[in-house]
Amino acid sequence: MSENTELKRFTTINFLNLALGFLGLQFAWQMRIALAEPVTSSLGASPFLYSLIWLAGPFSGMVVQPIVGVLSDNTKSKFGRRRPYLLGGAIITAIALWAFPHSAGISDMISNLLHINMPAWGGLLIAAILIWVIDACINIAQGPYRSLIPDVVPKEQHANANSYISLAIGLGSVIAMIVAPFLKFVFNYQMPIEAQFLMAGIAFTLAMIWTCLTIKEKSTLKTETVHAENSEKQSFWQSLKEFFLLSPEVKKICLMQFFTWIGMMCLLIYITPFAIHTVYNIPDLAGTSVDKTLEQTAQNYALICLAVFNLVCFLIAIPLANMANKFGNKKVHILSMLSMVLAYLGLAFFRHNQAAVLFFMGLSGIGWASVCALPFAMLSRYIKPGTEGSVMGIFNIFIAGPQVFVCTLVGWLINISVMSGGVNHHYELTFYIGACCLILASIVTAKIKE
Questions:
Q1: pTM for this entry
Q2: How many domains is the chain partitioned into structurally?
Q3: How far apart are CA 95 and CA 164, in angstroms?
């Protein structure tokens, strides 16, 4: 019996249940992306130090996801293969999200309990540790989550499943980003950063619980017993070796992801400081006075930028899947990335125009919807049954690895590029670099054979 006949076709309700947990995951991840910079900068972090703190994401992605992927492939429990990692990652992430904006207070509490004098940068150290915990635990959940798709969805529906994940990414991000600006605009209430992080942790946990309750893992199917009897447990290094032997096209897909995610992280890491310090021209160097009301306005604007970006991702996700089914993943992905190139150049050229920045953030959302879905759909065609977790974990190396480049070299370039006024940096540089990398990714994608 073929793989596709073993797995029941998903209905719209099935897809929504599958996607809901990722909506919560993205809710938490987007809050960390959007508001980590205001927290760390208030504790004294420079742009370069902020970039180094961001290394938590790529390092945990390169280490945690591949290892957890192999572990989840080989996990046998009454809760299933993936569920322990989905729920465990969500719960620990929620605790760390709640604690993160209280880093200074936690540092003071440690000082009082242990009767020691914590250094002035103690709060920043606690914040950095908590970011590493958040990123590591999100990766613990994210790798096995992606593995659910080849686990439970028929191959001919993989593009649709990944597009529903894109839909969830867009919607989760929009909700996360719009709550605080909405409360300010409608009720004139500025939601504290602490409350926003707490909200993200609760949303992540509840959404993940729903998906775990409503999605039947492959391990509960009869075919799982057959796969388990006919395969041996593999080590991480065996899985890594076999990954590159799947097909010559897999190497091209990995190279495409490498350049794509350099381009993506140029936006995701720096859009908040870009909006606050470039669009609103608020000083980002230590020792400068800042109007707190203007700073809150700029922070809300940064959230709106990310909301527009993800709203377009949400709206375009399913139409993009339909186009991919009709014209092919490769063609649709290339056009989507080129639209993001245009958006990046627009962000750099019109960086002082608030309306233009919002427009180009929306345009870049088309590429974001494609990046969240189509590369995974391309790769899923080459995955052997029983290796879903390890393949997705190893594939994540080519998502996490490029972030190291962005966090170090790009962060360093921004750090040394002080503007003529002496109180800000050239954050628009990140979009020029990102546009070049997305062009390279498009060239590589054109060489992939479907």
A1: 0.73
A2: 1
A3: 27
